[in-house]
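ARCHIVE CARD
Drawer: 12
Card no.: 0347
Subject: one protein chain, sequence and derived structure
Cross-reference: see card 0346
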Amino acid sequence: MADKHSGNQNGSGNPEKNNRSRSDIPGIRRVSADSKMSGVRKPQPSPAVRAAKAKTAQTQSQNKTQANARQQTPTPKRVPAGKRQAEIQKKKRMAAAVLITTVLLISVLLGFGIYHLIRFLAGRSSRQTDAVTTTTTTVASSTTSITTTESQTETTTIATTTTSAEPTPTPTPAVTPFPAGGPDLTGYRVVLDAGHQMTPNKEQEAMSRSMGGSKDKSAQGFIGTVSGTDESEINLSVELLLASYLKSLGADVTVTREENDVNISNKERAELAVSKEPDLYIRLFCNAANDSASRGCEVIVPSSGKYTSEVKTWGEELGKKLEEMTQSTFNGCKASGNYTGLNWADSIPSFMIRMGYLSNSDDEALLLAEDYQFMICKGVAEFIATMPKK
């Protein structure tokens, strides 16, 4: 009995039970002999457990990084209320200064523009007043002359009744306003036209008898870039001076207008010129360009008519005479069919002179000077002397 009990205690009584290894028991991993020698190996966690631990470690790391960042970020300093108010006041003062400066600049520009406008209007009014004064003076001089003549006649009559008659004195010739000299133009018939007029006429008229198309009866002239003088006034001034000079040299002269306040179309001026059957028809104009450096004079002639083969050569000669007398640059002669006043006068030798550029301050100053205007007159007179008479 004792052996039997002893055998049950050691497990030798049931060989199958004793022969079961620990690896056959669920949940127990088999350990090799080497593992037993080095010590028992701990069981490894499952993948889900490892992932959870990794995520927890990552979250802790991010929280630690954010905490460090918050600790390193400097807390903005609060600006004292007094200093903030001072800065606001400084900005307000700067804005007010900019606004005041802008207003002052605008006021100066407006004042400058108004000043020049008043100066232009005053100058124009002064020129008109001078013209009226000159006319009044001329009339007064004529009246005085008539009165003086009547007085002399009465005196002569009284002297005749009392004493013997005395010989009548030779009258003193009128003083010419031009320097002595100039070609003899006796026998020449000339028509002069001062281009444009005070008030433009936008009504249309045919450009020519042979071509289609129409243009304004009288377009607006150019304006002086410095003085503001209207081109029509300069053209008229030169026309009247040229007419007086040519008459003093013996020419028979007709002008299309003697004042600025007229309403005569370009066609009507040409028809007037043709009716006089002149040796020359000369139109006086100024010029202008977008380029303020453009200067000089030019001549334009009709591109059709009786004198087509000759008039361009004559125009070149006219330009050379003007260049010689005025020392202005002659920019050449061209034939054109774009000018109503030339197209309707192509049956007579017709020339348009553009005397200078009102868009150039130097040319403008010359065109307003009477001495320069007279040099233009001399150039025209020298050219007329080379033309054939009818």
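Annotation on reverse: The chain has a mean pLDDT of 80. The chain is about 50% helix and 15% strand.
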